[in-house]
Amino acid sequence: MAKRTCNILSAGFTLTEVLIVIAITTALAALLMPVIASAKVNGYKTSATSNLKQTFESSSLYSSDYDDRVPYAVDECEWRGGCTSLSDPAFWQSIQKNHTPSFSLALQPYGFKRVLFRIEAGRGPQDYEATSSSYVYMLRLSSASLQPLESHGCLYFTERQPNFWNGGQNDNWLQPGERWLTLYFGGQVRYALYPDVYDRAEDCLAYK
Fold this sequence. Notes:
Blueprint lengths: L1 H9 L4 H51 L10 H4 L9 H10 L4 H5 L16 H8 L3 E3 L8 H6 L3 E5 L19 E6 L4 E5 L2 H9 L4
Antiparallel strand pairs: 1-2, 2-3, 3-4
């Protein structure tokens, strides 16, 4: 009986073997975590790029019905009064008086869904909940012709917050190394560097 008990005990793991297994598992997890994180970021990037492409396609359908002009609409945040502290109160009053639609409302007949404005990364979800869009519509009340906007490389939409979740240098606000997910009037989606985003935005307001 004693001999049999000894054989059973010897079949178990020693403390050293258990520690070796734990060490190997930890090392494998450490190797896999960056891969998993990278795959997650790439998933965010693919989803956000696809959403902006669909936004541009809906806008193009609108423009084909309105003499190749940008939708006559305003930023979701301003349309809902969420940005009145950042803009002229007279602007908000004119939106109400003229019944100017938000961008998503203007494109609803062309298959656009507002959920396309949501970025599932960085500050995107918080911005969406607060302002109904993770992006800023760069040409308010435009109804401008598409041709000059496209030829001058103007921005259509860009993130409300710096794109530190994919390509930015840090989490600080308005740093030269920050990248912003941006849709251009030519239909291109890029991760533009600040301050190029704001410089181009200011220049292109001349074409509204």
